[in-house]
Amino acid sequence: MRILALESSCDETAAAVVEDGRKVLSSVIASQVEEHRLYGGVVPEIASRRHCEAIVGVTQKALDDAGLTLGEIDAIAVTYAPGLIGALLVGVNFAKGLALSSGKPLVPVHHLRSHIAANYITSPELEPPFLCLIVSGGHSHIVQVKDYTDLHVLGRTRDDAAGEAFDKAARAMGMPYPGGVEMDKRAQGGDPDAFKLPHPTVDGAPYDFSFSGLKTAVINLIHNAEQKGQTLPVEDLAASFRKAVVDCLVKNFVKAARDTGSRKLAIAGGVSANTLLRSRLEQECRNRGWKFYMPERNLCGDNAAMVGSQGFYEYISGNVAGLDLNACAAMAV
Ligand code: KG4
Ligand code: ZN
After folding, report:
1. Which of 114, 154, 302, 329 is least buried, going by the fewest C-beta atoms within 10 A?
2. Measuring from atom 2 of ligand 1, which residue has the nearest CA?
3. ipTM for the complex shown
4. Cα(292)–Cα(125) distance, rounded to whole angstroms?
5. Ligand 1 mean position to 179 CA, how many Å?
6. Which residues are near ligand 2, the ion (C-beta closer than 5 Å)?
7. Is 178 in the pocket of ligand 1 (CB under 6 A)?
8. What spacing in Å lies between the alpha carbon of 53 and ligand 2's midpoint?
9. pLDDT the model gives residue 155
């Protein structure tokens, strides 16, 4: 079964053709990051307008790259929630138009479920059940993936998402948006123990995260130094911050795995590209004899191949939408 998948939840307009949930026939991404960088973050109004301009060309290219016409596609999958509402609406309405004109089924895909599905592409042998840490610009969740379309959230962030904390702290360190990527690079040359930073926990909720205090601590350090006319060593600051975020993520994720008896772990989302997070979890899992899965780096961030993968499993579980499908800015997994 070949699915044409569309993704427009944030600042990437993406289309892909995926066969049977695992084989990527084409994947095209038009990124708006250069433009949003001018403003230090995603400007929702601009994102929606750029999706409108890009979506036809990106979709056509995905079909061309796969060597297929719309008539040879079996279903249209689209990210419908959660995300920037104006951005999501572009993808959803375009997908509805394609479904209406071609008579193909329309499959709604949840953005976090699709991030998890990036692992099915990278690791064709991976099947639920497993435990997944989803860390992106908007979410930090620990999810029990009981089956492809049966998920249970064990923990989540109470404030900032891990990616959001990376981006805001990086901005205070003078790095361009999206700062998480840049901070990961700069941290490689720094001393992770140079600065003692808080490792916030949430009372009575051992799987939940809280990153805003950690982010504020680092921003205060920078501002206090500036007031004294000092400049802090950015590499050391980046390394210390990255370590603190990764410590919190790893600690709660490993605890959740132990408490639930999960021996198969996966990570997903933009922050799952983080070098330290990947190596630390790989090590933790190897030490315990657990299996560990992570998406290929180019599948960690937003893309449509992961939507095509999850779309396949949604379709075979009977999740098909009518032409009244709407986009939702917020929605549980
Ligand atoms: O999944 P994603 O592309 O979009 C959302 O659904 O939010 O995640 C984007 C986030 C940004 O906050 C970005 O800074 C972060 O992922 N990110 C990273 C790295 N690569 C991307 N954070 C830390 N280290 C990285 N290597
Ligand atoms: Zn995402």
Report:
1. 329
2. 270
3. 0.99
4. 12
5. 8
6. 136, 302
7. yes
8. 21
9. 98
Identify which of 181, 184, 185 to mutate to test ligand 1's pocket (most ligand atoms within 8 A of the CB): 181
Give the DSSP H/E element, type plus range, for residue 331: none
Q: Mind listing the domains of the chain with CATH numbers?
A: 2-116+302-316 (3.30.420.40), 126-299 (3.30.420.40)
Token digits of residue 225: 């130094």
Ligand number nearest to the C-alpha of 41: 1
Q: Give me the sheet containing 106-110, strands edge to edge.
A: 23-31, 12-19, 2-7, 75-81, 106-110
The alpha carbons of the chain give a radius of gyration, in whole angstroms, of 20
Closest protein CA for atom 21 of ligand 1: 270
Please identify every stretch of the chain with a pLDDT value under 50, giving residue numbers as ranges. none
Joined together, the tokens standing for residue 63 give 């079909």
Model-level pTM?
Answer: 0.97
Asked whether 75 and 107 are in contact (CB, 8 A), the reply is yes
72-99 tens-digit pLDDT = 999 999 999 999 999 999 999 999 999 9
